[in-house]
């Protein structure tokens, strides 16, 4: 708890709490990052599940860089938002669930990305994309981000 | 800036008398559930928009056929439809709040810009894309449409999220 309290008492956290712009800017960046990360992750997942077959996997693979930029934006903005009320969030089950879902979602995207990279190098993307395991990962990715979004929104209400 | 909303009062007052207003304000979890759906629609719209608009700007044109841009449109329509639906419910739930909010006004203007841009795309650009080679560098007009779309929807997202914090909140 000491670290968490220290975070909450930091100057950066104070800025978020006190300034008129700090919180709104952070929350706006957080929405932008989530639209990018979740938006692209969902398209990737749907592609793995067989939709939008006109779009090459190699292209989606390149676009994942942008998704990770969104993720980093949310890591940073989320860190600021967390710091403003660290001791409150750290014991909030809704927040903790969100964090678990975000971590799971990110890991699943990374796994899909790695699988696609290997397949592109091996030249068998089309076969690899048929893999039932990959499709299950894709489905769970959608589920994880969806629950992450729901719990994220409900932090403010519960 | 003070919005002169006097002319809207009859409309706004009527909206507050509707069953939509009563329901959304009466059900305890209606608002956060609608907000969650609104975020979901936003993601379903924004992901494809990034991909489509980057392709219109020429990204990875050697790999992505021009025609494939269309394949994502149904997902953007689904996202937009969810947000139109939930957005209208929000309006009916608290009409004065939105009428007086500068961020909401700016958001709606940008939705209009994005919508007109999409209409222009549908009517003028689609035939060009269909005629063009699948991997040609798009002409400037197409790139402008792509950039406008990207900037407009980003603006919609930003001003939307700032509604509680700008102006009258």
In short:
Chain A contains eight helices and no strands.
What would your notes on this structure say?
The complex is a heterodimer of chains A (158) and B (169). With 158 residues, chain A is an all-alpha fold. Chain A has one domain. Chain A contains 8 helices and no strands. Chain A is elongated and about 55 Å long. Chain B is mainly alpha-helical and 169 residues long. Chain B has one domain. Chain B is 72% helix and 0% strand. Chain B has 7 helices and no strands. At the A-B interface, helix 3, helix 4 and helix 8 of A face helix 3 and helix 7 of B.
> So how many helices of chain B?
7
Helix content of chain A: over 70%
Task: Work out the oligomeric state of the chains in this entry.
Answer: heterodimer
Structural domain tally of chain B: 1
H-E order of chain B? HHHHHHH
Largest interface, C-beta closer than 8 angstroms, per-chain residues: A-B, 34 and 35 residues
Order of SSEs of chain A: HHHHHHHH
The main β sheet of chain A shows up as: none
Low-confidence stretches of chain A: none
Helix and strand composition category of chain B: mainly alpha
The rounded Rg of chain B comes to 19 Å
Give the SSE map.
The complex is a heterodimer of chains A (158) and B (169).
Chain A: H1 2-8, H2 11-18, H3 22-48, H4 57-84, H5 86-89, H6 93-122, H7 125-130, H8 132-154
Helix pairs in contact in A: 2-4, 3-4, 3-8, 4-6, 6-8
Chain B: H1 9-15, H2 19-26, H3 30-56, H4 73-93, H5 95-99, H6 102-131, H7 140-162
Helix pairs in contact in B: 2-4, 3-4, 3-7, 6-7
Give descriptors for this structure.
heterodimer; A: 158 residues; mainly alpha; 8 helices; elongated; B: 169 residues; 7 helices
């Amino acid at each position: 708890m000491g670290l968490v309290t220290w975070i909450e008492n930091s100057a950066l956290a104070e800025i978020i709490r006190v300034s008129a712009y700090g919180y709104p800017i952070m929350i706006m960046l957080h929405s932008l990052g989530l639209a990018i990360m979740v938006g692209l992750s969902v398209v990737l997942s749907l592609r793995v599940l067989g939709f939008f077959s006109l779009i090459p996997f190699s292209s989606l693979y390149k676009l994942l860089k942008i998704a990770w930029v969104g993720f980093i934006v949310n890591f940073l903005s989320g860190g600021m938002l967390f710091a403003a009320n660290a001791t409150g969030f750290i014991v909030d089950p809704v927040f903790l669930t969100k964090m678990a879902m975000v971590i799971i979602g990110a890991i699943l995207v990374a796994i899909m990305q790695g699988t696609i990279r290997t397949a592109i190098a091996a030249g068998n993307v089309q076969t690899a994309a048929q893999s039932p395991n990959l499709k299950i990962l894709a489905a769970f990715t959608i589920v994880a981000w969806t629950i992450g979004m729901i719990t994220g929104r409900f932090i403010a209400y519960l | 800036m003070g919005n002169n909303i006097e002319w809207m009062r009859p409309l706004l007052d009527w909206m507050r008398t509707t069953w939509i207003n009563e329901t959304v304000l009466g059900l305890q979890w209606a608002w956060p559930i609608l907000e969650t759906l609104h975020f979901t629609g936003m993601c379903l719209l924004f992901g494809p928009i990034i991909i489509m608009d980057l392709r219109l700007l020429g990204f990875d044109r050697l790999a992505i056929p021009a025609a494939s841009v269309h394949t994502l449109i149904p997902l953007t329509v689904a996202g937009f439809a969810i947000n139109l639906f939930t957005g209208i419910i929000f309006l009916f739930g608290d009409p004065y709040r939105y009428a007086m909010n500068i961020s909401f006004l700016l958001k709606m203007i940008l939705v209009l810009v994005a919508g007109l841009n999409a209409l222009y795309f549908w009517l003028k650009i689609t035939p060009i894309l269909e005629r063009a080679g699948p991997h040609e560098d798009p002409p400037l007009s197409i790139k402008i449409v792509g950039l406008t779309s990207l900037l407009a929807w980003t603006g919609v997202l930003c001003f939307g999220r700032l509604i509680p914090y700008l102006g009258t909140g």
